[in-house]
Amino acid sequence: MRLDLATAAPEAAPDAAPRPLLEIRGLTVSYPGPTGPVEIVSDLDLTVGRAERVAIVGESGSGKSVTARSLLRLDRRATVTGSLLLDGTDLLALGEKEMRSYRGRRIALMLQDPMTTLNPVLTVGSQVMEALRVHGVGKAEARRRAIAVLDRLGIPDAARRMRAYPHEFSGGMRQRVCLAMAIVAEPDLLIADEPTTALDVRVQEQVLTLIDSLVDELGMGVILITHDLGLVAGFAERVAVMYAGRRVETGAVDELYRSPRHPYTAGLLGSVARVDRDDPLRPIPGSPVMPTARPVGCAFHVRCAHAEADCGVERPEIRLVGHSDVACHHPLALREGA
Hints:
CATH architecture of the largest domain: 3-Layer(aba) Sandwich
Structural class: alpha/beta
Helix content: 25-40%
Strand content: 15-25%
CATH class of the largest domain: Alpha Beta
CATH superfamily of the largest domain: P-loop containing nucleotide triphosphate hydrolases
Radius of gyration: 22 Å
Number of helices: 13
Strand order of the largest sheet: 6-7-8-3-9-10-12-11
């Protein structure tokens, strides 16, 4: 008997918001410590739409890279709770065999250092092809697609360079190879973890332009993880700011850069040189807190010039302030009367 799909699954209302490609809900990541579990990421919520570019920013140790690795469940030492919905499927509920079918094919990770990502004793071609071969693509087809993606990413004479080794490529070309490995299977979601580290400004722009063009061409969502707010301004549409493992502010890039609501966000922006202003740089005082020694209340209050008594007692919940979601008892916009 044929199922009447029109009756069984009524169409959504025309004005219904499309479901995000990725929905992170209550993500908490802990690692074993000398006296018990140490929480590195705490109760993180974030969404990424199709063909959307979302950045996660923060100082070293804020939990950005741990978040990236948890999305692919790469570290077996980690205890990961919450939900990671990719197209409605909870990745945390999948068995390891099922999860392997998602890595590379549905969700891919581009790491920051090509010299540790690439195997020096294997040819570039074999490493790009591997992302397809592990998902059952035949050798001839994998080779054809590997050459095509290297050519698309601007590797000259791609068919011949397939036989070359990583040390025979420049830093910028090695980063393109890493990008080719990540996108050769045309994933739905690309996570780019500090993809421009150690590259000069010209090559940084080239790499981000390539990723940007792939978003338009393939419709994939992108999470850009970086400490460089300058990169974010020219690439992402939304940005999530993390501090001490927690999301402290999220909003549209233009709004957040123009009027940051969290003192930490304002501090990050004040530490960046800008060509449109000649204000002196204002570094954030102190150092990021260690995961094993996070203070009670707001983790940033020990470095915050705007902290009041309640900041050291109660952890602020995330709430909407203007156009941004902010975890702060005393958001800057309210102080300034905006």
